[in-house]
Specification:
Layout (H helix, E strand, L loop, with lengths): L3 E2 L3 E8 L2 E9 L6 H18 L4 E12 L5 E10 L8 E12 L5 E12 L4
Parallel strand pairs: 1-4
Antiparallel strand pairs: 2-3, 3-4, 4-5, 5-6, 6-7
């Protein structure tokens, strides 16, 4: 799979134990970074494994990250599908959570978890 890169802040209101918290997503400056590609590829692999699909990534259209209170980082991507089946959407949104193991290069993300992988509808 080749998940290559094809303002920058947006906000999302998240539910947190009977309350709400604003989450600030910061745009990833370099979608071609190997670390970013590894996380996007993980999202696709987990989705394919869980749902027994053959989803293939043509490229990362957009990407953001946010650091949560529990030292977890969430990565959010808009991924373009390669070989789109008839009737299917070509852009999907994926969210992966994990913690950065080391700030030395290459960066490693441990305890990765696929939180979301679904068609993205830009209304």
């Amino acid at each position: 799979m080749s998940c290559g890169a094809i303002s920058n802040t947006n906000h999302e209101l998240k539910d947190r134990k009977k309350g709400y918290v604003w989450v600030t997503w910061t745009q990833i400056p370099n979608l071609g970074d190997p670390f970013v590609k590894i996380i996007a590829e993980f999202a696709v692999e987990e989705y394919n494994k869980k749902y027994k699909k053959q989803w293939k990534c043509k490229g990362i259209q957009q990407g953001w990250y946010t650091v949560m209170e529990n030292n977890q980082t969430q990565y959010r991507f808009h991924l373009e599908q390669d070989e789109v089946p008839e009737g299917d959407e070509n852009i999907y949104e994926a969210v992966v959570s994990g913690s950065v193991q080391s700030h030395d290069l290459p960066l490693l993300l441990k305890n990765k978890n696929l939180i979301l992988f679904m068609p993205y509808f830009n209304y």
